[in-house]
Give the backbone structure.
Amino acid sequence: MIISILKAFLIGGAICAIAQVLINYTKLTNGKILVLFIIIGCLLETFGWYSKLIEFAGAGATIPISGFGAALTKGAIKATHDIGILGAVKGGLEATAFGIGTSILLGYFVALIAKPKTKKI
Amino acid sequence: MINEFLSFKSAYISEGFTIAGSKEKKGRLGELYDVTVEDDKCGEDTFEKGERNMFATAVKGLISKSNIKASDIGALVGGDLLNQIISATFAARELGLPFIGLYNACATYVESLIISSMLVDSKYQDRIVCFTGSHFSTAERQYRYPLELGVLRSPVSQWTATGVGSTLISSIDNQVAQITKGWVGKVVDYGVDDVNNMGAAMAPAAYETLLRIFKSTSTAPSDYDLILTGDLGKLGSSILRDMAKQEGYYLGDNYIDCGSLLYYDEQQVLQGGSGAACSPLVFNSYVLKGLKEKKFSKLLLIGTGALMSPISSFQGDTIPTIAHAVEVVAVQEAKK
């Protein structure tokens, strides 16, 4: 248990540290960095590499946005095996539907009860 | 005929008024603002309505502070950072006075001083009120991200100041200070395209205007008690110092950047303040107090503005910038 928490912390922390380096030393805006990480996750999963990272680090690899990119690719590949080439279009969103649906739904509920506030830092 | 600068004979700064947010109150000039608000929505239900409320308060406060009536004001001149300058416009709707709306981003305040000086110096009006400001929470979503998005800020970024400053420009109330000269800025673009790094983008515009000032009047930095730039921030103002040094102009302790002056370092504003509120907040509190107390007799105020829009940045354009300037002289000095 402690070991798996440590692994998740190290890998998840390393992914975030790369993003922090990009914020500090490049002109990339935060939005572009998010998209970049999704694409990297997609690409790595094309060869099944990101799955190996998830096996090793668990939540440390699935929670960062690159995990979402990997899930898109994984779903697309699986659906292609099942129903042919059209699965590439269907599978990605199917595999991530739970995450996307939940965040949209929760977004609406939170908007009902919470108001935006000025950032402190 | 081309004039290097505009000369004004009877454009006086007679009074100023400031309203600022709670973060600004905790800053270096916190004690000097006329009004500070704890709730930056000013009791309204949106930040935008709060901002326009501040604009209206800044004008009403100035009217009562300078013992004049609203009907004595010939026109309101000013603007803000939001699309279609809604804060200044909607405040003008409430105030019911003639209104000239301006946009030059954070250089709007000095732009409005120049235009108001033209209006009173040419005797079109006796009294004009300049008002400009900005609001962190409205500017953040206008130019950057929704407030709800919890992303980290770039270390080169600045903090948009919340507040509005208003100034009464008059041809008759000649007690405090006088705007003697104005330099209308040129749009300068040195190819910076990092929207987080406004200071570096605007420093060349400030430099070009500063150089024009010194050359057109044969002066040097030491001829002024104070040289103020709007919101270059720490990084931008050190770039300006370096650029001026290469031309042989040494900006000493008399050079202050309004954005860098607003906050203490521990307030986590990174490179300092930015926004259309920086120069009016500093000028109408700290500088005007110094002019009244005869601490300053001659100074330069250089408003710096970054003129990109979110769309031009999305399309990969670089950031055009501008710097307008005025020379302000205390009244006793001017009469010598």
Q: What stands out?
A: Chain A is about 85% helix and 0% strand.
